[in-house]
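Budget justification aside, the reviewers requested a transparent look at the raw inputs and outputs of the sequence design task funded under Objective 1. We therefore reproduce one unedited record. The lines immediately below are the structure tokens for a 221-residue chain.
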């Protein structure tokens, strides 16, 4: 996690001014400035969305083109929404889908519980068991998906879930969860492949995947 954050911070240093501009304006006309700077610095940063939810239209387009998809999420609600319907469609589905979600089982050192406590400070309706229940619901949804198609793998992890990564063979969408906002209201970065940000996102996913636990039935033959 430390190496990943260091890579993010160092790669964004040269384009900090344009990144702030994109966050403040949130308008498409300034995206070409961010993209031009990222090509010069090698970060691969293409767009900045003020809120994660505003990236869904572009994310759906990239998912329709993807050969493979990797998802590291703190809850996984996006997996059940319309934006992910191309991934579950047998007509256009990617060859491989790897998904990482937090371990919903109770334990003394649960990072999911830590995030629940964090969110409850600014969202009083967010009870201790709500996040755990939502993750379980999304795992049940994925279990149904695997009965309908092959190529989907799910693993659960008990590690700091401070960011969301949705990556394809073309690009990655990165959201860093804040201590005072839901992920859907947090800024989202779009990183093209190849680039430092894209590589860092895949490294974060692969490191978590290696230490995660398989959590779906064996795929049908």
């Amino acid at each position: 996690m430390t190496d990943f954050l260091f890579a993010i911070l160092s790669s964004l240093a040269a384009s900090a001014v344009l990144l702030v501009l994109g966050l403040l304006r949130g308008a498409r006309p300034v995206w070409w400035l961010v993209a031009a700077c990222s090509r010069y610095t090698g970060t691969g940063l293409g767009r900045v969305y003020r809120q994660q939810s505003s990236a869904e239209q572009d994310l759906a387009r990239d998912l329709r083109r993807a050969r493979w998809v990797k998802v590291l999420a703190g809850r996984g609600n996006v997996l059940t929404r319309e934006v992910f319907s191309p991934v579950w469609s047998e007509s256009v589905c990617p060859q491989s889908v790897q998904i990482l979600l937090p371990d919903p089982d109770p334990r003394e050192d649960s990072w999911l519980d830590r995030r629940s406590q964090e969110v409850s400070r600014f969202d009083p309706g967010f009870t201790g068991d709500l996040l755990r229940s939502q993750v379980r619901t999304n795992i049940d949804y994925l279990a149904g998906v695997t009965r309908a198609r092959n190529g989907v793998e799910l693993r659960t992890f008990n590690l700091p879930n401070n960011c969301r990564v949705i990556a394809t063979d073309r690009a990655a969408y990165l959201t860093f969860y804040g201590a005072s906002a839901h992920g859907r209201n947090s800024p989202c970065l779009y990183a093209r492949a190849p680039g430092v940000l894209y590589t860092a996102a895949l490294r974060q996913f692969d490191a978590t995947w290696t230490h995660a636990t398989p959590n779906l039935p064996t795929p049908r033959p």
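Residues 52-210 form a domain with the Endonuclease; Chain A fold (CATH 3.30.870). The mean pLDDT is 81. Computational costs for records of this kind are itemized in the attached budget.
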